[in-house]
């Protein structure tokens, strides 16, 4: 397996606290305690409505399996996985420009292990010992046995262990110089 690097990415959002000016003036004396309380309750109600509306539009966090090409050349990527209903499936090709990322699976990952094969135009391959079926053009192939007899190419994929996380990012890096 040449030039493979793996990492899992998690992102956190941050915020900056800013001082809030406090008014030293009191409410107009024309307002009674009950009127002031009524205004405060109305303002809190409007604020709660805004927060509820914003929360309902955010939805659940996005989940995915993404491959990032950290090399200086475009790379073609194929993906293999075991589907509970269909058995083994391979899909390809995603073309990743140099220094770009592509989401191969949208949604929470249903399995722990995925298999990747990648190659660039210069003959550099990221491959492994798991033989699966591919073809030269865009494909979705069910099953991994008898690839050649079924008219497909037999290609060595390498295993990626996602550790059962909801989202995973895999980096294809330049092969190490030996």
Characterise this structure.
- The protein is mainly beta and 178 residues long.
- The chain has a domain of 111 residues: Immunoglobulin-like, CATH 2.60.40.
- It contains one helix and eleven strands; from the N terminus they run βαββββββββββ.
- The strands form two sheets. Strands 3, 4, 6, 7, 8, 9 and 10 form a seven-stranded antiparallel sheet that branches. A four-stranded mixed sheet has the order 1-11-2-5, with no helix packed on it.
- A hairpin with a 3-residue loop joins strand 3 and strand 4.
- The longest helix is centred in the N-terminal third of the chain and has 26 residues.
- The protein is globular and about 75 Å long.
- It starts with a strand and ends in a 6-residue tail after the last strand.
- The N terminus is likely disordered.
């Amino acid at each position: 397996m040449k030039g493979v690097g793996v990492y899992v990415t998690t992102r956190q959002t941050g915020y900056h606290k800013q001082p809030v000016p406090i008014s030293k003036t009191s409410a107009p004396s024309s307002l009674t305690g009950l009127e002031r309380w009524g205004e405060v309750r109305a303002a809190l109600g409007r604020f709660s409505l805004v927060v509820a509306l914003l929360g309902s539009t955010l939805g659940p966090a996005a989940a995915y399996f993404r491959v990032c090409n950290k090399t200086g050349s475009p790379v073609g990527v194929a993906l293999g996985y075991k589907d509970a209903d269909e058995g083994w499936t391979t899909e390809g090709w995603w073309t990743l420009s140099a220094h770009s990322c592509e989401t191969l699976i949208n949604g929470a990952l249903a399995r722990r292990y995925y298999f990747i094969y990648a190659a660039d135009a210069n003959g550099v391959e990221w491959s492994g010992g798991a033989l699966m079926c591919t073809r030269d053009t865009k494909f979705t192939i069910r099953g991994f046995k008898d690839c050649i007899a079924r008219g497909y190419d037999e290609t060595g994929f390498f295993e990626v262990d996602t550790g059962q996380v909801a989202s995973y990012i895999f980096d294809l890096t330049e092969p190490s110089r030996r």
